[in-house]
Structures are given as C-alpha cells and as structure tokens.
Design brief:
The protein is of the alpha/beta class. The chain has 14 helices and 14 strands. It folds into two domains: 158 residues, Aspartate Aminotransferase, domain 1, CATH 3.90.1150; 249 residues, Type I PLP-dependent aspartate aminotransferase-like (Major domain) (Aspartate Aminotransferase, domain 2, 3-Layer(aba) Sandwich), CATH 3.40.640.10. It binds ligand KE4.
Length: 411
C-alpha cells in the first residue's frame, strides 16, 4: 500500500512519526494493535457522532445482514434513507445515494454543469470536496497537509474550468462573476470549512453567496459531507437558514459504512439518468447494509437530539485549551461550533486559507504527539477539524481536557 495507508492524511507525514494500527473501536476510544486505548477526536473523520460501534448501529447492520449484503436493485432500506434525508433537509426534494463524499460532490458538479449548460465552477482555497479532478485545485485536507493542494495528474484544461477564490471574501466573488458573465455553472462550498482546520465564515457571507449565485443563474452547492447532521440535524443550512440548490452528504449517513448522497431541487435532480441526460451510477449505491447503518445513526440523532450536549462538550474542550494557552502566554485560536473544533497556534484570527497557514504547524506537531503520548488522538494534521461524539461525555472529555492542558503547559 503506497505510504502504508489507504488514504494519505492517515500517514502522519505532516506531524512526523509512524501511524499506529487500530484493531477495534468502541465509544470514544480506539484500541490499537499493541493494546493502547486512545481517546479519539477523529471519529473516523466524522461519521462516529454516536461514538464507535454503537449497539443500535451494530444491531441494525446485523439484522440487515440476515437478508444478504447487496441486491443491486431498488430496496426498502434506500427508500427509508431517502425519506430521512428529505425530512432532515427541506432543501432536498430528491436525493441520489452513492458511496462516498467524493462521488457526491463529483456528481453534483456534473449535474450542475448539465443543468446550466455551463462549464466553469467556483471553489474556495482550502475547501476539500474529495478527490475528483475538477476539485483537486487548491484543495484542503490531505492535499494541503502534504503540500500538494493542486494534484499532479489533473490536466490544465480541466483546471482552467475551476475558478478558485479566497474563502469568506465577498469582493472576490463579485469580481469572479463579473469576469465570467454567464459562464459559472455552480459554486461549491463547505459552508463551515473543516478541511483547513475549522472555519466559520463571517456573518452574512453565506447569505451573500446565495444572493449572488441566484442573481447570475449559477447553482449553489453546499458540501455538507462533514457538517451534515453534525453541526445541526439539518446541517449548516438549518443553522444559517440558507437554501442551497444542491447539497452533498456523506460520513454520518453511512453510520461508519461507505455512503455518500447528493440532492436538492427536483427540477435539477430530474436531469439525472434515467430521467434526464446527466449520467451517474454506482454498483453499491443504496447498499442495504450501509443504508441500515445510516438509518440507525439518523434515527438515533432524531431520538437523542444531542446537539446541545455536543456543543457543551465542544465548549468544555475549547475553554480548557484557551485557559492553558493563556496561562502559558501562548497565542492560540480554538474555533468551535457544536462538536467540531480545531486548534491553531497563531495570534491571528483564522478566517481563510491564508490565515490558517499562519498557524505554527511544527508546534501543532509537537502538541499532537504530546497528546498522543498521553492517550489522546487528534487528527494528524494542522489542517483538519476535530470531532466529538456523544460517547465523549463525562470521563473521556474530562480526561482529554486534562491532557490538552498538560500538553500545552509542556510545549
Ligand atoms: P470521501 O470521498 O472521503 O468520503 O469524502 C470527501 C469529502 C467531501 N467533502 C468534505 C467536506 C470532506 O470533508 C470530505 C472528506 N473529508 C476528509 C477529512 N477531512 C476525509 C479523510 C480522508 O481523506 O482520509
């Protein structure tokens, strides 16, 4: 396996050292192959909002398994999942299931281009939307972590169709639309960005984005693969009361199994094959096991409505880090909303790609290992978000806050 991993960000290349192997996970903890227990703030990059291996999700998969693993036909599980997604996200009138966030955003871009008959798209520096060619331009997450935000292998002709703008900058948006009249098919954005660290844009920015895309006939795509069902039951669009034209989902809706989805206005979605000319497909799309796991995860969210509890855990963590850094006289930013957070070692408020890069990545690497040595696992990159689950409540979050404080004290 190149680099010993199946996904680059897992390789610890930007924080140094070698990644550990995990043999089991439950609740807020990972159990490594050499029997260490780690309090996990990666949560398999977002899906594990109920903690790992939740009994309800495990039972749902086991029950579905009794009927087989894959049918390749319409099945009741995918109908129930579609009904849950449409219920949680009123902007989604119709939805198509797929197998990853990358597939969801790639398909949404193709659909936007097919619907508008325009070729250019706008994305933002530092936003990561998976690894399809049009979107690996100034990307965040692992692409940024490993210093190749523009991937090799993407033809210049493809890259020319992707306009990259600074995040959180209305003037840049206005200029881009003025410079490309009638040519922009869509704008895709992480409405709260989790792939250059965690960034919430300035108040009014998303509303402006909605207004200017509508004015120019460009579709607004919210990539809520990470924030969907995490920031709120209905994602950032519920919290910010913005209605995008299309939404991309993933992670939590798979309950830990491979799932992605995209959906939105029916008039746009009906351009998809077999109804319309935009082709999109997948052998395992709507897979019954993955649907059963996701249905259990979403149903549990509906029953528990854990968002206030998760936000309290996030604030407990944020306050512990801020207090320790203050005591040490160490500049730090700890953006946090609900169960998402990140830690930037900089005095500069982080509001976009450029200010995220003012964070001291070397100091972050030291902090990362100081926490890991004490049994707390953060994302192995200064350019990722941290995730908290309901399973962190109580002992795990208390222990983690102690560890964060001592790790900062000893930096
Ligand atoms: P996947 O193809 O990895 O399922 O989803 C891609 C994707 C799309 N949109 C957003 C906002 C995302 O955060 C992601 C994937 N997130 C990364 C972590 N930042 C996945 C971890 C990894 O690449 O290993």
């Amino acid at each position: 396996m190149p680099g010993g991993v199946n996904s680059p960000v897992r390789a610890f290349r930007s924080v140094g050292g070698a990644p550990f192997f995990v043999k089991a996970a439950r609740g807020a903890t990972l159990i490594t192959a050499d029997d260490r227990e780690l309090i996990d703030f990666v949560c398999t990059w977002g899906p594990a909002i109920h903690g790992h291996n939740h009994p309800r999700i495990k039972a749902a998969i086991a029950a579905a398994l009794e009927n087989g693993t894959s049918f390749g036909t319409p099945n009741p599980y995918e109908v129930e999942m579609a009904e849950l997604i449409v219920k949680f996200f009123p902007s989604i009138q119709k939805v198509r299931m797929c197998n990853s966030g990358t597939e969801a955003t790639m398909s949404a871009i193709r659909l936007a281009r097919g619907f508008t008959k325009r070729d250019k798209i706008i994305k933002f520096s530092g936003c990561y939307h998976g690894h399809s060619d049009s979107l690996l331009i100034k990307a965040g997450s692992g692409a940024l972590t490993h210093g190749n935000p523009d991937s090799a292998g993407v033809p210049a002709s493809f890259a020319r169709e992707t306009v990259v703008l600074p995040y959180n900058n209305p003037a840049a948006l206005a200029a881009a639309f003025a410079a490309n009249p009638g040519q922009i098919a869509c704008v895709i954005i992480e409405p709260y960005c989790g792939n250059v660290g965690f960034i919430i844009p300035d108040a009014g920015y998303l509303a402006y984005l909605r207004e200017i895309t509508a004015k120019h006939g460009a579709l607004l795509i919210f990539d809520e693969v990470m924030t969907g069902f995490r920031i709120a039951k209905g994602g950032v669009q519920e919290r910010e009361k913005i209605i995008p034209d299309l939404t991309c989902l993933g992670k939590i809706i798979g309950g830990g199994l491979p799932v992605g989805a995209f959906g939105g206005r029916a008039d746009i979605m009906d351009c998809l094959a077999p109804l319309g000319p935009v082709y999109q497909a997948g052998t395992l799309s709507g897979n019954p096991l993955a649907m059963a796991a996701g249905i259990a995860a979403l149903t549990l969210l509906e029953e528990l409505n854990p968002y206030a509890r998760l936000d309290a855990l996030g604030r407990q963590l944020r306050d512990a880090v801020l207090a320790a850094a203050k005591a040490k006289g160490l500049p730090v930013q700890v953006p946090q909303c609900g169960s998402m957070f990140s830690i930037f070692f900089t005095a500069t408020p982080v509001r976009d790609y450029a200010t995220a890069l003012t964070g001291d990545a070397k100091l972050f690497a030291k902090f990362f290992h100081a926490c890991l040595e004490r049994g707390v696992y953060l994302a192995p990159s200064a350019y990722e978000a941290g995730f908290i689950s309901t399973a962190h409540e109580g002992a795990a979050i208390d222990r983690a806050c102690e560890v964060f404080a001592t790790a900062i004290r000893d930096l």
